Amino acid sequence: MESRAAPGRGQACAAPGCAAASAQRCGGAAMRIGRRAILGTVLAAPALAATDYPTRPVRLVVGYPAGGSTDLVARLLAERLFKAWGQPVTVENRGGAAGTLGADLVAKAAPDGYTLLVGASAEMAIARAVMRAIPYQPEDFAPVALLTEQPFLVLVNAAQPVGSLAELVALARQRPGMLNYASHGTGTANHLLSELLRVETGIAITHIPYRGGGPAMTDLMSGQVQMLLDVIPSALPHLLSGRIRALALCRTTRSATLAGVPTTAEAGFPFLAGSTWSTLVAPARTPEPVLARIGETVQAAVREVLTDAFRERGLEPLGGDAAAARAFIAAEQTKWQRIASRTGVQPE
């Protein structure tokens, strides 16, 4: 009688009596295929999530009341994101504490890409230099993109007998303690820059803090204060009306919107450089594929539409990716800390 050896592992068995063994082997193969399919699904989940994002409304938090420059940037961006994604993108204004209330809300939000912050220099860079305690840290955010820059203008009431920044400094030296300057509040960017001008030139001028830009601009136009540093979107209507005058732009290159206004570097005061700016950030630990999806959409919107929309409103587009935003914010934090130390502005 001929004996048959049992088939080795991996061999097919053609004998009728080996049907059960064949089934066992097929079952094992099916299990292996099933495991691979499950593993593949798990590994593909982040990519699928990024591809599908967003599947529900997204909110852009702004740490200031409606109507300001940061709010304007957020609303222009929200419109473009809605058109790109087909999902509602709402702007939520959470004003208070120099923008830090809104920033804290986003820092503590779920890291899923559905709550984002259109952050400004105050809460993202300056707060650490001028506030004793803030409820979040830089590492609580994942930068997504740079949006705009709004350099400050040195503004004076039109009745002031000066036509340049050098003439303003000379006037202040002639009248020590008699000129006042307004700010948007103690510890704000325009307060720090104005103090830097005072310290570096040795002039004696008096700080008058206001609760926001509107009241400060009103008193500049009426002559209650003689000087104010403010951004182009806020100043432009009043410059056109002739009620105020721009002496210099606080950066190294001129603005296309006000090409006739010299820079502080051209005026002989290169140290006086600063701006407010806007950037898009998400909560830390937001999945990288989701951050990439948001970043790509924002970059396309800035490149295709928003650059012109920003410039039409006196905003300077920056248009940098996540890496550029991270480096920019870190550099700004260092700069404002240095200015606060130089001017002696103490944390409150």
Automatic annotation (TrEMBL):
Q: Write one Pfam family the protein is assigned to.
A: TctC
Q: Which InterPro entries match?
A: BUG, Bug_dom1
User: What domain of life is recorded for the organism?
Assistant: Bacteria
**Member of which family?**
Belongs to the UPF0065 (bug) family.
Specify the protein name.
Tripartite tricarboxylate transporter substrate binding protein
Species this protein is from: Dankookia rubra
